[in-house]
Known about the structure:
Chain A is of the alpha/beta class.
Amino acid sequence: METKDKIIVDGVSFFYSSNRVIDNVNAKFKTHTLTAITGPSGQGKSTLLGMFNGMWNDTPGARCTGEIQIRLGGRWVSPLKKEIPMPLLRRKVAMIFQEPNPLPMSIAKNMAFPLKLAGIRDKNIVQEKVQRALEQSFLWKEVKGRLEESALNLSGGQKQRLCIARALVLEPEILLCDEPTSSLDAKAAGVIEELLVSLKSNCTLLVVSHYMDQVRRIGDQVMALEDQGLKRI
Amino acid sequence: MSNTKEIIARNVFFLSAIASAVMILAILVLMIALGIPLFKAGNFLAIWTGPWAPHKGLYGIWPMISGTLWIALLATALCMPLSLGASFVITSLGGPRLRRMLGTMVRFMTGIPTVIYGFVGIFLLVPLVREGIGGPGMCVLTAGMVLAILISPTMILFVTDSLLAVDLSYVQAAKALGANRVQRLLYVMVPRATGGMAAGIILALGRALGDTLIALMLAGNAIQAPRALLEPARTLTAHVALVKAADFDSLEFRSIFACGIVLYLFATTATVAVRVMLRKREVPT
Amino acid sequence: MQEVLEKLAVFLSWTMTLVLCLCLSIFLIYLLIKGLPSFGAELIFGKAEPLKVLLGQARVFDGIFPAMVGTFFLVLLSAVLALPVGVCSGIYLAEYASPVMKKLFGSLFDILAGIPSIVIGLFGFSLSIFLHNHFSDRFGPCLLISALSLAVLVIPYIVRSTQMSLEELPSDIRRTALALGATRLQNIAYVLIPNALSGISSGLFLAIGRCAEDTAVILLTGVVATAGVPSSLLSQYEALPFYIYYISSQYSNPAELSNGYGACLVLLGICSVLFMFAYGLKKHLSYRTLYRV
């Protein structure tokens, strides 16, 4: 397996209005690994994650300094410098949130949504990609007969897996997960953990979580965000 | 690719906003431009403070300004106790069902067309005032009373909103200290909602100043500065509505633009006052 | 002493609430008693045959049909003019404007919302005279000018309700599509607008209600007592609120007066349905939208 660097974080700080939220973070993340990031709440774990896919770029009052380099398709790009249009970046650096956020439409439409955004309309390709992503997310068997039903009727765990599948449909190289299991019960959380580990063969994962045991179970590398700095533990 | 679409869309949105905003200035500019012959014709000050005497060539709009102020201030004064009382009942004194019912009633009232208030006013209230109190019936008092009802939903909704916006923890704290409903309302909610309540009153006053139909239908429209509640009066709005466009170049006709400018300034002042008061409310105390 | 004051406050509040309810009840009951007897097909179509009127084969001279049609076209046209501009401006304010621009435009729209409708009517009237003098004699106060002026009158409602319902959307919804690689415009078109639709349509209903109700604007911009069903955008027209206003001062016999009450009921029905729709779609409409309502 490759062990090349995928993401390099170099002296990154984040300010919100005049408050420093993250101070001088340095880190490297290797291809096809899962890095778990932990730390006390309110220390900016989610903020850090959002810097990799440019979620803060249009937020008034937010400011980043330093440098983040991401290797996408063999080319190094910097999300902080907006060298690449944000939508293109986000199609390759996908993100999963704490609350599963399926849109109020059918399962099939939810799955096809990112493809529609990317301008892919060929029905056969869409169908194929949707099925593959659902299979990767352990969801295909459960939903294949009810693709036209509303995604809002799924259980919490299923919703989160749908969101993961929806993120995978564009074949991202990096998957950012912000507390992906904290709104779920233990059993559903276990399935998600297993799923995330299995996705290492496709992408590089950064998972923010405040459950120490979960972090140790799934992470190839564990880091803690404490006192505004990121440390390896 | 889709980048051009983004830029086009952005510009369409921006231009729409500009276009709507330009309207506001265009209205003022147009009125000033059309009023210019009037301002040039005579003493500039006399237009605003002088009497209306066309046979002497005097086209002062003071009687209309005075009529507007009489009616609007009377309406606001009558509306205040009604609205404050209703707001108190809606926010704290009434039970849950009554609150909901009153809330629905007030919202229903916002939908009653002005002209219908005027219509009922003419055939119900005018005779009552004429027979009961005296005078011609169509007068400042009649218009003021109907206008008070008309503007009450504005005031009630606004005052209710600002009372309910008071931080719940203060109310809970007072409750824990043994304050009853009335005490919580009077000593906790009202003092903290004064900015919003004042804004509601100004807003209702602004609405009263700008209303046309009630005064037009119920105030008698005599061009004279009223000196008593039972005298007829003509408001600025009614004056504009009543002028016939027979001779576009006559000074009499041009006077409606002076009325328009005064109304515009009244309304803008009220709006700015409301914004200032609300800004105060946003500052944490 | 303090206790007395508290008791007094409670007593006065209840009394005032009662007075308000009483005023409203008397108003409504009076209207119903006077209006209901005239209610019926004859109120609308007069002595003409309803079917023929609807097919355009007969004209109505003593009913409110032309006024209803006029109001309908007026409202439709104003909404068509105001909706795109209002919604686009609202989107700009909510999604694109910088804080400074937001404040600037916010103040301007508040001012526009506060301008008395007669002043906007005067604006429309001046506009029609300007067009008449500088372009063509065919221009004058007409349906188009009225609709334009009414559009100016209600644009602030649409802008504000669009802006507010977009700004209210939780960040969960806001970032869902962005994280999936949506462009700003895609996010607005596919996610934000559909989610804000109830708020936007609630603003639209308020706006339509205002257009249907307003008398001051149309008084100056082309409404007349007898015009029949409007034949073009540049023709004069009749409208329900003006009919009511006209009857109140010019009625010549009890039958006409009774028609006036009937027209009041019809207009009241239309407006309250529209307003209740608006409130039903969005439980809490903020004061800004209610500015003049």
